[in-house]
Amino acid sequence: MIDVGIKPLKVSEVNQYIKKTFAGDWLLSNIKVEGEISNFKHHYSGHMYFSLKDDKGKLKCVMFKSDNRLVNFELKDGLKIIVTGYISVYEKEGNYQLYAKKIEESGIGDLFLAFEKLKAKLEKEGLFDPENKKELPYLPKKVGVVTSSTGAAIKDIITVIKRRFPLTNILIYPVLVQGVQAPKEIVEGLKYLDDRDDIDVIITGRGGGSIEELFAFNDESVARTIYNMRKPVISAVGHETDFTIADFVADLRAPTPSAAAELATPELSELKENLERMFARLGKDCKHILNDYNLKLEYIKRGLDFYNPINQLKERIQEQDDLFKKLSQLMEIKFKRERDKVENIFSKLRYLSPTSLLDRGYSILLDEKDNMINSVNDLSIDKELKLLIKDGMIKVKVVKINKGEFYYEEK
């Protein structure tokens, strides 16, 4: 029975009411829940998002950065834990979830335990050994892809291959990538592509997911099929941090389908650049070879010229010319040095000559026989003398003699 008199509520009002109801419930406001971690994500903000699951249901969980700093063990898919917290509503989406305040280890989940058991078994058999890995072709003509035809993975693979190397053809074998039938279909797709002669490399994978969603790629039949393939296989499950069994067995593991497409094909622009570099290097090598041959020919020519008598005679004449030139230079240097010495001596003689003394203001006293007077002992009163100065001669008579001192007559 519908009561038309009931006032309609806004969506936000309904969510707020439910949130208040949860907050007032004594059980939901402080609850412990045990389950297996699924679809775990540690956001760059520091918050953790995951689901708790058992064989009958799932519960979304969030643990904020301020609380998860106290967790002293690594959280990952497949791990059994006990979460203490409260149930509330995320009003924006209308979803209820468990807000974790504390997390304790409970044990290893069934799927994770099965994964570790199969991994150890196949590793012991040598299915993961690096020496069994096949090399990828450098220029694949056709790439085979085993994945879902409707997921984001196939779109990413096609987009990347067409962008990087449009000359490569793509053959898609659509399969289920999760569910009970998924392993069987993946095995059939891998075998079909491996039997084709026109396929050079095969990509298989999906766009990521929780541990149960990746179950098909942890299947033993898928792993053994990949190991026995003739063609190289790239595993691209789309999980950046976690590995599947297919990742370990495949010839190459890619973190995402887009990365697998990049690993499978070269970059066309890089190929062009490499070819240009190769041609440039080839041109340089040819040039170097020609230069080497030219140098060898020149060496032979010089050897022939060296033993030519005319050339030897020319060399001897040139050597004599060089010696004469060096001798002339040495003689010129020697002559200049000697000339400088003579000029230096003449300069000193000129400086010490009587004429030079007269030019500098001095005078010379001579007797009647033109002998130079050097001492007062050579003089006598009334003796006539000659006084030579710069521009002439003066006759003088001795009127007074003072010995041992300069004499100045006062006026």
Folded structure, characterized:
With 411 residues, the protein is of the alpha/beta class. The protein contains 11 helices and 13 strands. Among the domains are: 11-106, OB fold (Dihydrolipoamide Acetyltransferase, E2P) (Beta Barrel), CATH 2.40.50.140; 140-266, Hypothetical protein af1403, domain 2 (Rossmann fold, 3-Layer(aba) Sandwich), CATH 3.40.50; 356-398, no CATH class. It has helices spanning 11-24, 65-68, 110-125, 152-164, 182-195, 220-227, 245-249, 257-264, 268-306, 309-352, 354-359; strands at residues 31-42, 48-53, 58-63, 79-90, 95-108, 142-147, 169-174, 201-205, 233-236, 252-253, 364-366, 384-389, 392-397. Helix 4 packs parallel to helix 8 and helix 5 (182-195) runs parallel beside helix 6 (220-227).
Distance between the termini: 163 Å
CATH class of the domain at 140-266: Alpha Beta
Shape: elongated
Q: What's the architecture of the domain at 140-266 in CATH terms?
A: 3-Layer(aba) Sandwich
Q: Work out the radius of gyration.
A: 56 Å
According to CATH, what is the topology of the domain at 140-266? Answer: Rossmann fold
Classify the secondary structure makeup into a structural class: alpha/beta
Total beta strand runs: 13
